Structure formats: structure tokens, C-alpha cells
Amino acid sequence: MKKSEENLEFINVEITYNGKPVLTGLSYNFSKSAVTCILGSSGSGKTTLLRSLSRLNDRIRGFKVRGEVWVAGEEIYYNGVDVYHLRRKIGMIFQSPCIFPTSVYENVIFGFKYHHPERKKEFPQIAERYLKEAYLWDEVKDRLQKPAQNLSQGQKQRLSIARALAVEPEILLMDEPTASLDPVSSDAIENLIFSLKEKRTIIMATHNIAQTRRIADDILFLYDGTIWEQGKATEFFERPQKEETRIFLEGGSSSSS
Amino acid sequence: MNKRMLDRGLLGIIYLIALVGMIMMLAVLWEVVRRGWPALSLEFLLQPSSNFGAEGGLLYQTLGTIILMAAAVLIGFPIAVGSALFQTEYVRSEGVRAFFRAIIFSLNAVPTILFGLAGYLFFGVYLETGVSWLTGALILAIMILPTIQASIQSSIECLPEKYREVGMSLGMTPWALARRIVLPQCWHGAITGALLGLARAAGETAAIMFTAAAFSGATWPRSFADPVPTLQTHILVLAQDSADATSLTHAWGAALVLLAIVFFLILTSLVIRSRFSMEAQR
Fold first, then answer.
1. What ipTM describes this predicted complex?
2. A74-75 sheet: strands from edge to edge
3. What is the CATH number of the domain that holds B86?
């Protein structure tokens, strides 16, 4: 069966680790050019779900996915899938920014340089374009050749977003991207997410309810290894259907704002 | 005895053992420097030896040792890098990894004379290559492989997994991860390994005695099949002639030169390891 090129969907997916189910009965169709937040308490499987979309758990022994995971018209756990090409289409931003011990410039063009070594002349424009898109250009334009390790934590996270964007992904996965940042840097990342969703589908794992209220279009609430509730963000926050969701939202509201 | 006293007692024993080790090493160093120093001069370092080493200098012996060391590392280094990358980046099964590790490290435990004997039988007798510097370098390369690999592998295993994950998320293949992420951040381990390998090769006598070294008459090798004189075997020959005071002084002089080479390599590897590993992990 062939799906549409824009399709991003789980169909009856079960994810196990060493035979033990981590997520079960997952069926969900993600909206295009929207921000979908995966909410849930720690250990609910948010990161596992996110990483399964770009097969980042393939290196982990004992990790298995059953069911169908469709990305851009392809069932990605099918044997013949080019996993490297898949990961180019799906960018990933990790919880704490991981910057290579080299210059800001080398960091931002790292992935692009690998995929397009022949387009050497474009490297400076690519660096500028994506640093601008990540709202980092003004802060680093005078120190592009300086070590990226000297940037602040918030700047490093935006640099890692610029690096991921430079590979031109259609979908961006974000695993609690503001968890290790101060409020000012978090605001900068939130604004960035708003501007990015015009062109890309964004899926973000978080347990920050206040932030989810501000940026989410759709919500997936994970509880006990399954999708407990799903739907439009406004409805989810105004009329939660289940008791567990209400408890999570009330408990979370008091701890994160 | 309370716990505090026991703790102090054990600490004292540890210090004492360390002190004994250090004193022994310093005593050996002092003896080599004291006895070898009178032999050292510019002529001794730059002139070829004559009269079976009793006269002249160490020029060709030093060159021979350097040739063997360098060739052994040139052969062993790429194999060690490949083997370390294979084990850390490609093999996922812990059992297979442990198997490879056991093989590599048991090479370390093989007495060096066995390498020499096996090399002599395989190359010298079976392949009829005779005594040649290339044969010696090949045997030394196999011998120093565990030393180089252990250093590279430990620095690769110290690299946080997050770097690989970033590379994977950017669509890189395992080979690209190894080449563009793992190796650039672990090169200090590779350089350290190479230098330690060089140092080990420099100190080796038994493995090259039958296969690569000429005890007298050889100079600069003109083909792959030529033997070379080495500092190690030169010391052996001179030390056997203990009745002659000049020969003995020359033997100590040669020992001092060899020790200086090994010391310099180990010191450089320590500096590289401490400076660059800190930089890589910043």
C-alpha cells in the first residue's frame, strides 16, 4: 500500500524493549505544517515515540517496532528502506544541545557539507541562511570561526537547530528542546518553533504544560504506554476527556509555567 | 585497630610500594646515565661503528632502530585504527566484541621471543625471505598492535554517544560517523597509541634478533630484503664482550641513546593525551 508523500502516521504500533512493551496500540495521523506536542510524565514513552520516527533506536539491542510507521509515503520499518535518506528528511533536536568541538561555522554546515560536498561555494550562504532562520545570525556573525563551545546553552541549542535545518528536513522532531535552558533562551526557541512550523511539520516531546499551551496545535497525551488522549490543543486543555489527563494537567500547571 | 588506622596503614603500604617502584626505576636510569654518559659525543652519535662496535659510533644502529620502529607503526597503525573502529562502531554483539578484545589482548601476553621464532619460521624459512628489515617491521607491527589499539579504543569508548546520535540524525552512514565524528575527536588517542607503539618497538630485541637485525657489517638498507643493524642488538653484542672496557662503555652509551628515544616518545604521548583529551571533552 502506498501513502501520500505528506503522510506521517502510526498504525497499530507496538514498541518493545527486550520483549517488554514500552508503547502499545499507537495509531495516530500527524497534521502537516503544525506543531504536535507529545505530552506525558517522565517515562511515559515520549522520547521513544519520537525517536522511532527516524529509527534512531536502531543501534539499541533488543529494541523492536511492530505495526506500521509511515513517513512521507514510506513504511519506514520495511526492510528495503534507506534509513540514511529517511533521517535526512526528519531532523532531530535533542534535549541538551550537542555541539562539535569546532567553530560555529563548521558546526552549522556539518550535515550539509556531508550530503553536498560538491557545493562548496554555497557553504557560507548556507551557514548564513540557516543561522538567520534559527535567529542566531546577529549574535554570531562576527565570531563564525570561533569555537562553538563558547556559546551560551541557549545559543548552542539554536545552533543545533540551524545545523539540523541546513540538511533541509521536512519534519523536525524535538525532544524537550528547552528543558536545559533558562526562560529567556526558552522564549527564543519557542519563537523559532512558531516561525519553523510554516514550512515544516514539528513534533515535540515535552512535559512543560505552559509551553505546550503556547505553541501546540495538536496534542498527543501518553499515559501508561498508550495514547490516552489526542486532538486539538484548545479542546484538550479546555475539555480533557479523562480523569488521568485532568490530574496530569492540574499537577503540571502548578509545577511548570 | 579502628578503621582510620587501617586506612592509614593501607595508604602507607601503597605509598611504600610506589616509592620502591620509583626508586628501582630511578636507580636503573641513574646507572644507565652514569655509565653511558662518558661514551656520548657528537662523533659517537654520527659515526658508523667499526671493529664490531668497539670503535666508532652508532649512526647506522640508530637509523636501523628508527627504520624498524617507523615501519612497524606505519603497518600496525592503520590495522589498529580499523580494528578499533570495527569493534566499537560496527559490532553490536557484546559477545563478538569480547571475543575480538580477547584475541587482541592475548597477543600482548605472547612472549616476544615467540614472535621472533614464528616470524623467522614463516618468513625466513617458509617464504625464504631471509633476514630483512621488512620482515622485522611486520613482526613488530603485529606485536605492537594491542598497544596501539588499546589506546585508540579507550579514547573511542570515552566519546559520548550523543555525538554519534547527532551524526545519525543528520543522515550519516556508520562509515561517515567513524570518519567525520569519531576519529577527529579521538585522534589524540590514536597519536598516543602510535607513540607508545613506537616506544615498545624501540625496546624490542627478541622479536627482531632472528628476522631483521644484522649484528655487524650492515649499513643503510638498499632493498626490502636487506637487514639493518639496531641499537638493541648492538647493545647485546657489545655487552657480551665484557672483557673490553671500551665495548662496555659503548654498550652503555647505546643503551642511553635507546632510553632517550623511548623516554622522549612516552613523554610526548603523555603530553598529547593530557592536553588534547581535555580539549576534546570540553
1. 0.87
2. A20-29, A8-17, A63-71, A74-75
3. 1.10.3720.10
